[in-house]
Amino acid sequence: DGGITQSPKYLFRKEGQNVTLSCEQNLNHDAMYWYRQDPGQGLRLIYYSQIVNDFQKGDIAEGYSVSREKKESFPLTVTSAQKNPTAFYLCASSIQTTTSKETQYFGPGTRLLVL
Amino acid sequence: KQEVTQIPAALSVPEGENLVLNCSFTDSAIYNLQWFRQDPGKGLTSLLLIQSSQREQTSGRLNASLDKSSGRSTLYIAASQPGDSATYLCAVLYGNKLVFGAGTILRVKS
Q1: CA torsion angle for A55, A73, A62, B90 (degrees, to 10)?
Q2: Is A113 exposed, middle or buried (0-12, 13-18, 19+ CB in 10 A)?
Q3: What's the mean per-residue pLDDT of chain A?
């Protein structure tokens, strides 16, 4: 059963704490992405990775970090420097980053709440 | 700046009606335009993808059109059903980046 999994479904962060959101895909896709969704707004790109051991900042990378050590995995760390982390976080993947024919496939999301 | 706008923000219709959702974009140098569906608290599901050289795509009761020169796309849903209730997101691919609109929340009443 191919797809993208994200865990946990809900995550609570205390002030000053770093937390890591997991994203795994078994679609054999090269490209992976992290988006943030706030109520009433479209998705905004945090980071993306075109290939293993490479990643690029998106529009709102400040306060976040990522790694891409394996093709299947693209974890996102929300650091204490991110002052407004409460949001719905979505991970996606695609065959390649720049192709007009292919869509992105999305995971079920992680909701991050601040205690 | 590359921006995507969706109108209306919310729409409520009785079951069986045909409806149109609108999307506009500021930069016409697009690779493709995509329509997604999002159910509450869930991820996105791709509905239709229109490449920049195409004018429309159809899937079942859904039809999406693209007019690059005017920077507009429409998603037409025929014979709406309560199961169509969801948020519909328009997204435009520019190079490596997919730029999203804020979405239209659709409610189909039975």
Answers
A1: 90
A2: exposed
A3: 94
A74 vs A92: CA distance, rounded Å:
10
Per-residue model confidence as pLDDT tens for chain B (110 residues): 899 999 999 999 999 999 999 999 999 999 999 999 999 999 999 999 999 999 999 999 999 999 999 999 999 999 999 999 999 999 999 988 999 999 999 999 99
Closest-CA residue of B relative to A50 is: B96
Question: Closest to B32 (Cβ–Cβ): which among A90, A92, A100?
Answer: A100
CA B14, B18, B21, B22 dihedral sign is: negative
Q: Write the residue in A40, A41, A104 that is nearest to B98 by C-beta.
A: A104
Q: Are B89 and A42 inside 8 Å of each other by CB?
A: yes
Pick the residue of B36, B53, B96 with the most A CBs within 10 A to test the interface with A by mutation: B96
Degrees (nearest 5) of the Cα angle B23, B93, A72? 125
- State how far the Cα of A63 lies from the Cα of B54, in Å rounded to an integer: 39
Burial class (CB in 10 A: 0-12, 13-18, 19+), A85: buried
Please indicate whether, in this complex, the C-beta atoms of B96 and A48 are within 8 angstroms of each other. yes
Question: Cβ of B96 and A50 within 8 Å?
Answer: yes
